[in-house]
Amino acid sequence: MSTFPVIDTDPGVTRQVLSESKEMMVVAFRFAEAGAEGKLHNHPHVQSTYVESGRFRFTVDDKEFEVGPGDSFVIPSEAVHGCICLEPGQLIDGFTPRRDDFL
Q1: Which of 14, 25, 60, 85 fits as disulfide partner to 98, beta carbons 3.0 to 4.6 Å?
Q2: Predicted confidence (pLDDT) per residue in 10-58, tens digit
Q3: CA-CA distance, 8 to 92, in Å (whole number)?
Q4: 100: Cβ–Cβ under 8 A, 6 or more apart, which residues?
Q5: Residue 1 clears pLDDT 70, i.e. is over it
Q6: What is the mean pLDDT of the chain?
Q7: Which of 38, 31, 89 has its CA nearest to residue 59?
Q8: How far apart are CA 87 and CA 61, in angstroms?
């Protein structure tokens, strides 16, 4: 059980760190409603995303694709990416190294 707080990040979106070490971090992003958005951004961390539930349309470096429960993919370091929630659900993201800005 995570002892980290649930943080509001964007309208309809929350983030909670589930576990972390200096080398790696696991984070849950919950999307409460269709249309909620993870705005386009980039960072130096390599990110893996696993769709626990819901449906999402992702953009990664100008490529769009849809994902649903059980899908996973990797986002390279510095790739511009974001998503739009099509059906409410949760993403589980891994980051390496840890995202200190989330602590």
Answers
A1: 25
A2: 999 999 999 999 999 999 999 999 999 999 999 999 999 999 999 999 9
A3: 16
A4: none
A5: no
A6: 97
A7: 38
A8: 23
Residue 14 has which token pair?
């929350």
* Cβ neighbours for 93, distance < 8 A, ≥ 6 positions apart: 26, 27, 28, 29, 47, 48, 49, 50
Q: How many CB atoms lie within 10 A of CB 17?
A: 20
Residues listed for the chain: 103
Q: Is the full-model pTM beyond 0.90?
A: yes
Mark 2-13 as b/e (b = at least 16 C-beta within 10 Å): eeeeeeebeebb
